[in-house]
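Give me structure tokens for this 124-residue protein.
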Amino acid sequence: MNRTMLSYICIFSIFYCNAVSSKNLVKVTIFSATSSCAHWNEDRQKSQGAPLSSGDWISRSIDVAWLAGYLSGVNLTSQSGENLFRDIDMSLATDWVDKYCLANRTSDVPDAIGNLLKRLKRTP
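Here you go.
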């Protein structure tokens, strides 16, 4: 490896380490239409009985993947330091959101997760 390349790698590493260890990290939350119970219910209804290769199942899969990311983000930013969803798998989380959103059509999926944490007596 030539000297110039090695220098660039060292400089990049220093800047990268400083950026990662900075306390002023920018936090970004990405919400999509998935975050509304209305959208969640619509995708759930369309996917029921639909072939797995259909666009409706793909939309539902995206919703579930978004939920997994959201749960991970809530867990990661938890002030308590505990694994808030240690005994919750995606099937259970999805069922909870399904039931919550059917009963609370004007709410959002994050409200469903907040309700789940409250029910479990866990504080993020």
